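pasting for the record
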Amino acid sequence: MHRLLQRQLRRYLGSDEDIPEELQRLVQAVNAAYLQSDDDRALLERSLELTSQELLERNEQLRLRREELERMVRERTAELETRTIYLQTAAEVARDATTAQNLDELLNNAVSLVRERFGFYHTAIYLTDERGDYTILMAATGRAGQQMLAEEYRQTLDETSLVGQATITGDPGIDIEAGTDEKHPPNPLLPETRSELALPLQVGDQIIGALNVHSREEAAFKEDIVSVLQTLADQLAVAISNTRLLREMGQTLRELEVATGSYTQEAWQTVIERSGGSLGFRYRGVGIEPLTEEVPQEEQAPEIAPPYDEKTTILTVPIRLRDQVIGSLNLRLEEEQTLPETTALAESVAERMALALENARLLEETQRRAEQERLIAEITAHMRESLDMETVLKTAVHEIGETLSIAEVEVRMGLGDENV
């Protein structure tokens, strides 16, 4: 630019000497400004180049970060879906526990559901025996499980097995590389096991057994899976305890029913014997008369006897108390067929008659016991009137014989079997 201005000025002014000094300084300033603008432009171009490179690097970093986030979201979503399945399984086990009819049904449903939903190789439930010496296999899946059940498989309650370890310590027992630990030898019936987990079944402070699961994958039991399975094991332990309690209550109830039935039979047998072997009455339209034959007690359900003639039918309804037949209600009906309404009415009357008779028997027994207590109190009072031993003995035999109307009463004092 400086040379270009000088050439132009020479054309108009002749030579450099003819160019004024002020104009030469002006040409130099313009040339310097032009050079400065070239430097700025070059700097700007270099800055733009650097900025573009940085943007490319930033874009690449953002792309990588986005891919990483997408991968993390996919993994987290898969984990949440898996955890949801696990929680649903735990809820289903808890639901089935409330509808199971017995302990075997509860345990079999639980192991089948856990194996199916979690995809485990083998699932089993062990319960401790009453003495606490063994853990006994109660439910298991697959052919190996059925064989072990058939053999009544059990393990000594010690820490040589994961089941024993979990049952003793109350902590989960995990073997991430099953078969490689000499302390926990593999089960020959489960050769595909690569990792194993045992979780305690605990109710309060009591450990009643363990939930045992096997997987074909190494290190299959991560922390989240163990957490969900432990929750499931806790629910299962409560369900087992409740089912056992219901079974024990049912057994106790049945024993009470048997005892009550035996007591009812004995009590009414005593009543019949006191009445002379027969207690019953009959009404035939003209008055009430006692029965001399024994009251039939073998009937268990209403019976309709063949008619005496074409217009007469006999209906026999048992009088039942606490599932024990204590008598019968016999009806002679002047009709060819007994209507259902008549049978239902007779059964209702027999049921209420049984309750009324039992109330009367209880009142009579209470009165008899009260009378016995009164007599005992009178005899005791007379014996206490004297402090002389001979007088006490005489008073005792006299009061017993007179009060109880006994023909002969004898009291002997002494030591040894001959006085018994």
